[in-house]
Amino acid sequence: MLQNVINILKRIFPEIILVTNQKEAYLSYESCGKFNIHVVEDLIKECGPLGGIFTGLCYSVSKHNFVVACDMPFIQLALISLLLGESGTPDVVIPEVDGEVEPLFAVYSKNCIPVMLEHLQKQNLKMHEVLSELQVKKIGAKEINRLDPEHLSFFNINTVEDLRKAESLKIKISETE
What is the pLDDT of residue 163? Predict the structure, then answer.
């Protein structure tokens, strides 16, 4: 799954940072050497997605950074490109579908670091509260549906059932290509 995400991201990004809470587990991972990605460990431990996003932003050399979870196997390049194209002024460019945002498929600028650090120091790890203090541009369902009508970019695998569904989707996707 991670290999698939890396393969997709390498098509448009010169730098990929893999943030983990166990760096050693990924140092020997075959794709890291093959693709020359940077494996870094959370700067502030046990802080969930907020800690990972913060860490990635701190290590990145880019002002604007696309963030995606490694358990999202069907990310769409066209949708990533749309988010990047909107990333000039806002601190965050994030998809929103049915009133829910997708913080692990979004573009964050380095301007987010101070707000994120403040929340991390207070152990307030709720992404919606962090986002409420930043300049956020939401990309609505109409635009998302044009590029990813089934919203597969946001499908993530957390359970065995999710894995089975992903395997089924992968078969359907390969049959249509």
Answer: 81
Burial of 17 (0-12, 13-18, 19+ CB in 10 A): buried
In the Cβ-directed half-sphere of 144, how many Cα atoms lie within 13 Å?
20
The three-state secondary structure class of 26 is: helix
| CATH code, domain with 166 | 3.90.550.10
pLDDT, residue 15, reads: 87
Q: Which two tokens stand for residue 87?
A: 């990333």
- 152 contacts: CB under 8 Å, gap ≥ 6: 74, 76, 169, 173
Span 117-134, pLDDT tens digits: 999 999 999 999 999 999
Amino acid at 74: F
Q: Which of 4-8, 108-112, 131-135 has the lowest mean pLDDT?
A: 4-8
CA distance 118 to 114: 6
Contact 37, 119 (CB under 8 A): no
Report CA 39 to chain centroid distance, whole Å: 15
Domain count, the chain: 1
Give residues with Cβ within 8 angstroms of 47, minimum separation 6.
54, 120, 123, 125
Q: Would the pTM count as exceeding 0.85?
A: yes
Q: Which residues pair with 45 in a beta bridge?
A: none
Task: Show the domain range for 107.
Answer: 2-176
